[in-house]
Amino acid sequence: MEINNNLQLNQNSYVNKTRELEKISSVNEINNNSINPSEQEIVQKVNVKSSGLTQVVSNVNNGLTSLQIADAALNEQSKILDNVKEKLLQASNDTTSDQGREDLANEIKDLLKDFDDIASNTNYNEKTLLQNDREDKSISESLELQASSKSKDIIETKPIQSNTEGLELKEILNEDPNTFNTEDARSYIKTIDNAIDTINTFKSDLGSTQNKLQSSSSNLVSQHTQANTATSTIQNVDYAKETTNFSKQNILAQIGAYGIAQSSNINQNIVTRLLS
Hints:
By secondary structure, the chain is mostly helical. It has helices at 7-26, 37-91, 98-121, 170-173, 182-235, 239-275, and strands at 123-124, 127-128, 144-146, 154-156.
């Protein structure tokens, strides 16, 4: 003899109740690969994209930092050249004594040495920015900055050689202070003006590249925000909805348990009657 019961119905109620409780406790709509597998796949793909965007944003920010360091160094070099020009103008005047002109020449040489020191020491993450290397005064290599998650989307900087060699200031640097005269001073003014113009060109190129990177960074941050919003929309639990569902499943589970208890009593009575 087989006596039917509602055990399956009761188990389903408990399973549904447990799932709703898992969603609420994990703050995650999709907390199991067996639940909404298609949406889980979408979330995984978006998460991979989001991680890539995070790294690219970091790359762009590192690029911006390096360019800002280079720009600040060029500003200091510009100040030095302005100071050098001021001293050349002073030395080019006949009212300046020979000793005064010699002192000015020595000051100019010291300033240009500082100028070269800036070029040698300006670096980011051990990458020299104003010349090829710390000891190599030749032109620097271009920096290739990854500007998106696509491999071909590169923003490239222009090479820089902002030292006395690259700006043709070696002659002034090697000037003998003892023979420095007004004609020498006057001839060097044009050389300094050309050097200042070249540094301004370097700064303009860096500024243009920074603008491109900042535009790329804003776009990447927007994409990253949208990706996170998309995953949140899919994953985040609707507390009001899930709490209501949990309450409903809890009531169904209680009804099921009550039904089984009543069914057991009825079945027991039937068996007792059949046996009596």
